[in-house]
Design a protein that fits this description.
Helix 7 packs across helix 8 (216-229). The chain has helices spanning 18-32, 52-65, 80-92, 103-112, 134-143, 152-159, 193-203, 216-229, 259-264, 269-277, 292-295; strands at residues 5-8, 37-42, 74-75, 96-99, 118-119, 122-123, 147-150, 163-165, 171-173, 183-185, 208-212, 235-239, 242-244, 285-287. It has two domains: 1-72 and 240-291, 3-Layer(aba) Sandwich (Rossmann fold); 80-233, HUPs (Rossmann fold), CATH 3.40.50.620. The chain has a three-stranded parallel beta sheet with strand order 1-2-3. Strands 4-7-10 form a three-stranded antiparallel beta sheet. By secondary structure, the chain is α/β, with parallel strands linked by helices. It has eleven helices and 14 strands. Helix content is 38%, strand content 16%. The radius of gyration is 20 Å and the shape is globular. The structure holds glutamic acid (GLU). Residues 9-11, 43, 197, 211, 215 line the site of glutamic acid. Belongs to the class-I aminoacyl-tRNA synthetase family. This is tRNA glutamyl-Q(34) synthetase GluQRS. Keywords: Aminoacyl-tRNA synthetase, ATP-binding, Ligase, Metal-binding, Nucleotide-binding, Protein biosynthesis, Zinc. Pfam families: tRNA-synt_1c (PF00749). Residues 4-277 form the Glutamyl/glutaminyl-tRNA synthetase class Ib catalytic domain.
């Protein structure tokens, strides 16, 4: 039988809020209730946004909540060579292409098109650079800033139909095309979230990915990348997000109170965690309903 392993994988771009604590709690308890392993991975691949002080903050907050992890913390910033190799592999197979478009050019192209397809993150990349012949693209790539995009249609054709299983044993069909040609190698960072997370979940032998329903859409891309790299597919459990009483999602950008603020206010972490385990949240917080596509095919 495969060993159960889950992970909490925060990006150190701010202090954790209670929604992060709720997510870490679910990944932690899922593993520990099954004699599995709960691991911590710091997703610090974004040099513009990741901060060392937030890494220590994450560690401090998890320890305060009593959510301890096993083994060494994995830092994505120390694994860049692995991601670069994976990207290189896709380049050799002709499954990614360099994209030289600026944001403004993409926006103009989309505005000019009568029917730009939309995905969960907005309009699809219009495919402008997909058709540049490989030799010309390679020449331009020497001098011009570019990112690397997945040729999603081609990758899907190579991978064939794909699905994953959720915690209830339900099969979900993967539709990576809903995202269009996603970026796998960024202009401003060596690699994208999608590529790094897929490789790391496999390398850390994560059997069950327990994470918020806001990442459900990303699973479609991760499933495709697993197929392209011949990696195992974990079971995915997408949990309900924590929101304010008025239903607003907790997020760094809407200044949700940080776990550090709760600590400073004298909140008892044991009571807080035990309460959340029993479905009782501090005043002002409540879980949102799960989106329908998280519930089954
Ligand atoms: N690093 C991601 C975030 O903080 C989460 C990654 C994941 O759970 O797949 O949103």
């Amino acid at each position: 039988m495969t060993e159960i392993a889950t992970r909490f994988a925060p990006s150190p771009t701010g202090r954790l809020h209670l929604g992060h604590g709720w997510s870490a709690l679910q990944a932690h308890d899922f593993a520990t209730e099954r004699r599995g392993h709960f691991l911590l991975r710091i997703e610090d691949i974004d040099p513009g946004r990741a901060r060392e002080e937030h890494v220590s903050g994450i560690i401090e907050d998890l320890l305060w909540l009593g959510l301890t992890w096993e083994g060494e913390i994995v830092f994505q910033s120390q694994r860049l060579a692995l991601y670069a190799m994976a990207l290189e592999d896709l380049k050799e197979r002709g499954l990614v292409y360099p994209c030289f478009c600026t944001r403004a050019e993409i926006a103009r192209e989309i505005a000019a098109s009568a029917s730009a397809p939309h995905g969960p993150d907005g309009p699809h990349y219009p495919g402008t650079c997909r058709g540049i012949p490989a030799e010309a693209a390679a020449e331009r790539a020497v001098h011009e800033a570019h990112c690397w995009r997945l040729d999603t249609a081609r990758a899907c054709a190579e991978a064939g139909p794909l699905s994953w299983t959720d915690g209830a044993g339900m099969n979900h069909r993967a539709h990576p095309q809903m995202h269009g040609d996603v970026v796998l190698g960024r202009k401003d960072a060596p690699v994208s979230y999608h590529l790094a997370v897929t490789i790391d979940d496999a390398d850390q032998a994560i059997s069950h990915v327990v994470r918020g329903a806001d990442l459900l859409h990303a699973t479609h891309v991760h499933r495709l990348l697993q197929a392209l790299f011949d990696l195992p597919t974990p079971v995915y459990l997408h949990h309900a997000l924590l929101a304010t009483a008025s239903g607003e999602r907790l997020a760094k950008r809407n200044a949700a109170p940080a776990i550090a603020d709760l600590r400073a206010a004298g909140v008892d972490p044991v009571a807080l965690i035990e309460g959340m385990r029993a479905g009782q949240f501090p005043d002002g917080y409540r879980p949102l309903d799960l989106p329908v596509d998280a519930l089954g095919p």
